[in-house]
Structure formats: C-alpha cells, structure tokens
Specification:
Length: 115
C-alpha cells in the first residue's frame, strides 16, 4: 500500500496539458491510413470515449489534469467500456486481462511516467 501511495503521488505531480492528453489518446488508438470507414468510425468512437472519461468523469472532477487522472480514465475505459462486439466469454476475458495486467492500462502508465 505504501508503494501504491508513492506511485499515486508521483502520477499526481505529472501535469498534463489537454494537447498532451490528446496525443496520448492518439498513441493508444492510432488511426491507420488505409482504415475502412467502419474502422475509422470505431477508432474515433473509442477515442471520444476515453476523452469523455478523462475530461467529464464525475469521480475525476476534483483531480487535477495530471498523470493520475489520465491513467484512471484509461483504466475505467479498459475495464468498463462496452466492447464493439461482445462475445459469450467477454466477462471472463476482461477479468483475466485485469488480473494478469491490462496492456492498455500498462501502456498509459508508461507513457505518463516517460513525460
């Protein structure tokens, strides 16, 4: 718990401009040049979802615009967003990814720590 507290403190100290948040979201969801219209629409929808969670989530309103807020927004997205296609074993897969380490959350954490 002590290490968690230290990590949260360090993430809180990493201030993020809105522009930087948009850059991070673009890194998480790159839009490939030859994307189909449906792929483009889906990627843009995912980006908007993460932006909404970062800028408008009620539980993050009192948190400054910083690394902690960004990692929390990505974590909320990765563990609570409705998938584009929900399969029969969706909940089991989500649980396994969360327990074993979620690549998207880990990537967001690494991006912020490198800032």
């Amino acid at each position: 718990m002590t290490e968690l507290g230290k990590t949260i403190d360090s993430l809180n100290k990493i201030k993020l401009s809105d522009r930087k948040v948009y850059e991070y979201i673009d890194e998480l969801f790159p839009l490939v040049v030859d994307a189909s219209p449906l792929q483009r629409k889906n990627i843009l929808r995912l980006k908007e979802d993460v932006k909404m969670r970062y800028f408008d989530a009620p539980d993050l309103k009192r948190v400054g615009k910083n690394g902690y807020r960004f990692v929390n927004a990505v974590s909320d997205f990765a563990t609570h967003a409705k998938p584009l296609r929900e399969r029969a074993n969706y909940r089991e897969s989500l649980f396994a990814r969360t327990v074993e380490g979620n690549a998207m959350i880990d990537r967001a954490f690494e991006m912020v720590k490198a800032a």
